[in-house]
Amino acid sequence: xxxxxxxxxxxxxxxxxxxxxxxxxxxxxxxxxxxxxxxxxxxxxxxxxxxxxxxxxxxxxxxxxxxxxxxxxxxxxxxxxxxxxxxxxxxxxxxxxxxxxxxxxxxxxxxxxxxxxxxxxxxxxxxxxxxxxxxxxxxxxxxxxxxxxxxxxxxxxxxxxxxxxxxxxxxxxxxxxxxxxxxxxxxxxxxxxxxxxxxxxxxxxxxxxxxxxxxxxxxxxxxxxxxxxxxxxxxxxxxxxxxxxxxxxxxxxxxxxxxxxxxxxxxxxxxxxxxxxxxxxxxxxxxxxxxxxxxxxxxxxxxxxxxxxxxxxxxxxxxxxxxxxxxxxxxxxxxxxxxxxxxxxxxxxxxxxxxxxxxxxxxxxxxxxxxxxxxxxxxxxxxxxxxxxxxxxxxxxxxxxxxxxxxxxxxxxxxxxxxxxxxxxxxxxxxxxx
Length: 434
Known about the structure:
Strand content: 15-25%
Order of helices and strands: HHHHEHEHHEHHEHEEHHHHEEHEEEHEE
Radius of gyration: 22 Å
Structural class: alpha/beta
Largest sheet: 6 strands, mixed
CATH superfamily of the largest domain: Nucleoside phosphorylase/phosphoribosyltransferase catalytic domain
Shape: globular
Strand order of the largest sheet: 3-2-1-4-5-13
Distance between the termini: 38 Å
CATH class of the largest domain: Alpha Beta
């Protein structure tokens, strides 16, 4: 078998066999296939696509390219939740303590952000002392003891995905459903959970722009997961506007703590509770939405969820005093208020423009080696549907880069669409794919 023949076959629209895909992944791992040959095949896949069988085989051998976590000694019900990413997406940080307080095990390996703000790991590392560099044994031990843990992704899980993604990133072959699906699902399966919940975003602040695109990707990921013996589902939700009011790193940690104290922004509550209830259904805890939501409300009002958050932070060497004193989180030297240019109601806040402004303030990175400012961020004092007066503060910018403020301010003002009429309430959940 030769890689040139496989490239030629896919270039002409042929369907690759399981053996051919296995040969391809093995060749990536033992370096017998050159990067330029891999790039050629990726481009052929980009234009010719892959059917569900090919996508499943690709995912399978990406999983088998490295270590697979075995969490069966902890529980038969291990939950993992993955988001395709968004602006102000801090859902994982509320989801995990709610699951643990519900007596469900969650094992979460997460990444750092490449883009407008940090990833979940960056947000957590804004907490003084918080450790995310857990060994596999430490990770499993903490899941067993505290019912949850969150750590930085290890290179030993689905390493073929890392090699492929590095080439996809520089050959403009990222945005093709078979390659996205195999990348996401392979990492989730290798992470050891048997119940996988995917939070698939669409809109201006997501890489998928329409709900139809998100549904197509979701259906492929769910089918691949099912074929590889995982209980998997996808919750499709809108990311046209930022989630919650905080966008950044430490500023999002504050919003997470406020949520767990009972000060829940409606959009954050809708997404978090829906994902949690989906986990309840998958694990057989609660079948009805009403019962599940009531239980979650009680976890918040009783303080059980906040106490579990503190337990998680403490177990990974973080300073839990931040829950009562936000000044112990990284603080920006500059705080700048953005004012509304007109009266009316907030009809829309463009997530992408807010994200770009946040990146300009220092909250994101272009490449993995870039440093990130944990204190930089944006707090939206006005949200969708709320009234606003000309000259009233609509957002607060936090930064240590004085020269970035004017451009960030212009982006935020442009992001806000102010209408004369009050907009109707809207649900963020588009569909759930089981």
